[in-house]
Amino acid sequence: MKFSTKLTLLFSSIVLIISFTLIYFTYTSDIKIMERQIHERLQIRAFQSMDEIDRMLYERYLDIKQLSYDSVLTSRSSTPEQITERLKKLRNLHKAYLSLSFFDINRFRIADTTGINIGKQHPLTAFWLEIAQGKDYGMSFFKSGSPKANICDFKCVVKDKKGTPVGVIETKIPVDSLTDNVSISAINSTVLKSTRIDLVDKDGIIIQSNHNNDGELRDVHEDWRFIQEELKNAKDVGIINRTNHPHGEDILVFAKEQGHHDYKGNGWTLLMSVPTSVAFAPLKESRNRMVILSFIIGSLSLIIVYIASRNVSQKIEKLVQVATEIGKGNLDVEIDTSSKDEVGLLSRTFLQMSNNLKIERAKLLEYTKRLETEVVKRTESYKSSKEAAEEATKTKDKFVYLVSHDLKAPISVVRGYLEILKDCDHNLEEVVKNITKVALDDCDRMIHLINNILDLKKIKDGKLTPQLAFIEARVMAEEALAGFKGIAASKEITIDNQIPEETTIYADKELLYMALTNLIHNAVKFSKTGGAVSIFVPEGKDATLAIADKGIGIDKERIGSLFKYEEKKSTYGTSGESGTGFGLPLSYDIIKAHGGDITIETKAGKGSTFYVRLPKFKPTAS
Predict the structure, then answer these.
(1) Other CB atoms closer than 10 Å to residue 68's CB: what's the count?
(2) Omega before 275 within 30 of 0, i.e. cis
(3) pLDDT surpassing 60 at residue 73
(4) Percentages of the chain per state (helix, strand, coil), in multiples of 5
(5) Which of 13, 223, 423, 536 would you label with 145, given CA atoms 20 to 30 Å apart?
(6) Are 87 and 102 in contact (CB under 8 A)?
(7) What pTM value is reported for the model?
């Protein structure tokens, strides 16, 4: 792919990504704002519509209250004809009413503006029962056959001047007149043209509906159960987004009746169901505008980027050709430096680089010749140094070996004579015996030190190969512990061999004896007077021996250096015992030579446990 194509694609991608990112975030931000605004407008519309219904009910409440105070109706001397005439006049003043009726206290219809059912007794409904309990106002609904409509029936007790009930006045208006304001709002609003509007009572029974006339005053609204849950949460106005509704995805808005002034309301709820596609139609229009705008911006951006990248790429392609020639070693290639922009600056830099390369190439050839001569000299010097270092290493090893054995031989002789001297109890004074004992102890320490030096040398050189065999662990541990019973007794330390009789391990007996001796010596050395040292097999670890003490423990910061020769670790024991500091590193290397490991558990002031882990082998039947 050519550079110009890559450059065009690069800049096009950057421009498109930035453009679409800005458009996307702008669009999503607008969506959230518009969704919130739509929800707020729907809730406000529902609340205002319910408030208008409350106002109308409040007006009817005031009307019938005012009618109940009319002098003709409150007078016990008024005749049915006078009452009828008065009702007709009142009907002319209040055109919203279908009819006005007056009943006596026994429910008989005395007068009616329509002249129908005069003298007939009204059915004993809940309102008439509530009059006896002091209620003087009521409202109910029923379906009228002629004209076919839902009727709202308002009743109010009429009392004389003494406050004694003389009858009941009744007014009737169509339920449609109560919800006209909701219907008008729906017609005048583009969003609410497809709105399903329902007015339900406190039990969820539909009072008025613009889509379910057959269910009015009969059916419980299909969403009443969900609305009840919201109303229980003290929500008077709310909104619910429904995605799996039988009528399709929609937004359900509800507003609870709040009453008006001293009119407390009837517990009605207004429900408005708006299809999501209708409610969010402005969002779709916004999205379409964004898509068109994005396409226009993207197209213009691509054209501009192509022209700009083509202009830049042609100059860069020439520079690429120049760089290719320089890479082949042609430093005399012609470079065009006439451009005044950044590409021209780059061309001039290439020209300067070409000239510098000519100079540096000449210097490099001269330096290469001198370097070759120097390498020959350094190689000969390195060979001489290497031979001298190897000879020094051999001399050092020979010196260590000779010194160790030359020291060991005479000290062994001295020790032998001191042993003879020590046995002549009847000829030696007590002072001589003490001196002899000290000399013997010092000889033992010197021989032990020399042996450690020789063993250390062998292990470091890889010349110490374990002679493996199956060993009775308890017997070998008993032999190792025997050498420390004297010093343990002097410090009142208990030594306990807890290894079971049948325990067998696979190791070099002499080397393992040496390692265990160093570890036991370490445990006794750092045990307090009256302490205890034990050797045992940890539970579940057949090829592991553990040496535990209840001594002073080891500081955590020193644990990492215990098995290193190069760090001085020798410290005095609890009774002032000294040491070389080689015991633990030597034991560690011996166990490593077996393919095993040594680990430590310790706690300051509580003691330490060293775990000697060896490879697991089981003796064959033979």
Answers:
(1) 19
(2) no
(3) yes
(4) 55, 20, 30
(5) 223
(6) yes
(7) 0.43
